[in-house]
């Protein structure tokens, strides 16, 4: 696998996914479709309690024919949009529960070459529905030079295929520190990540979250070793609200508009214009 479960547990300091048992090879036929699984947990960040839901896609990319493997994922995202739209149209809209997907952490195999055709196809299908955040999985299998070259190829592929990935918005009133922080985070995309749920000891005797190899220790929380810290910073600290706002104001609004138009519901564009009450 690509270490999705391990990385999610590492990101949120929780055991959302218990350790997997090693299963004996089975002669049973594997399922032919991607399944969708949602797991929720409460996490605390800087004294603030957050309700986190991770929507996993076991089986994605594992089949002989992966042509339509994106369909269950897009359908799930759209079903969540539909549920929110239904709730918006009810008389009592006071307690709308927002179960929309606000970010898709897209795992890319550490091949060191370029995006696979499947990755290009799936990302093209997803980018109009969800904030795409590409990550290079298990980046400790690549050297620093290989990671740098791989990142350039991935970004070139993304640009060539007109795939929109999430970019932190820039505001006129942002101070220099905020601008620098945002630029630093975005410069790491696609994030080269390593996950680890156990502590290991460094040669100097420090206990760190990481992985031990014959040649040394990879520290998950050391920014010189991987981009894990910046990915976590973006998801939980600096860009959480922006991810939600872009989902609501752009991705969902476009879907909602197209949906209502297809149903023959006329819309007044002025409804969506921002109005300055002082004028």
TrEMBL record:
GO molecular-function term, one example from the UniProt record: GTP binding
A GO cellular component annotation in the UniProt record: septin cytoskeleton
Alphabetized UniProt keyword annotations: GTP-binding, Nucleotide-binding
Origin: domain of life: Eukaryota
Nucleotide-binding found in the keyword field: yes
InterPro entries: G_SEPTIN_dom (IPR030379), P-loop_NTPase (IPR027417), Septin (IPR016491)
Nucleotide-binding listed as a keyword: yes
Record-annotated Septin-type G domain positions: 1-262
Protein name: Septin-type G domain-containing protein
Species annotation: Hortaea werneckii
Upper lineage: Eukaryota, Fungi, Dikarya, Ascomycota, Pezizomycotina
């Amino acid at each position: 696998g690509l270490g999705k479960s391990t990385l999610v547990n590492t990101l949120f300091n929780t055991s959302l996914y218990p350790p997997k048992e090693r299963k004996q090879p089975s002669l049973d036929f594997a399922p032919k479709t991607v399944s969708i699984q949602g797991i929720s947990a409460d996490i605390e960040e800087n004294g603030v309690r957050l309700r986190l839901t991770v929507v996993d896609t076991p089986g994605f990319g594992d089949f002989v024919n992966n042509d339509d493997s994106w369909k269950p994922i897009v359908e799930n995202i759209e079903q969540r949009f539909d549920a929110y739209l239904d709730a918006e149209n009810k008389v009592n809209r006071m307690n709308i529960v927002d179960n929309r997907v606000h970010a898709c952490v897209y795992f890319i195999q550490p091949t060191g070459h370029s995006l696979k055709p499947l990755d290009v196809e799936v990302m093209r299908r997803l980018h109009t529905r969800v904030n795409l955040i590409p990550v290079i999985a298990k980046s400790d299998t690549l050297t620093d030079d290989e990671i740098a070259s791989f990142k350039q190829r991935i970004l070139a592929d993304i640009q060539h295929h007109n795939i929109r990935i999430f970019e932190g918005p820039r505001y006129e009133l942002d101070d220099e520190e905020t601008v620098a922080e945002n630029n630093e985070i975005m410069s790491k995309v696609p994030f080269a990540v390593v996950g680890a749920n156990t502590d290991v000891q460094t040669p100097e005797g420090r206990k760190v979250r990481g992985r031990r190899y014959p040649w040394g220790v990879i520290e998950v929380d050391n920014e010189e070793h991987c981009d894990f810290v910046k990915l976590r910073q973006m998801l939980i600290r600096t860009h959480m609200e922006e991810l939600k706002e872009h989902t609501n104001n752009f991705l969902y609004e476009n879907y909602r508009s197209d949906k209502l138009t297809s149903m023959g519901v006329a819309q007044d564009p002025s409804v969506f214009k921002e109005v300055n009450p002082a004028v």
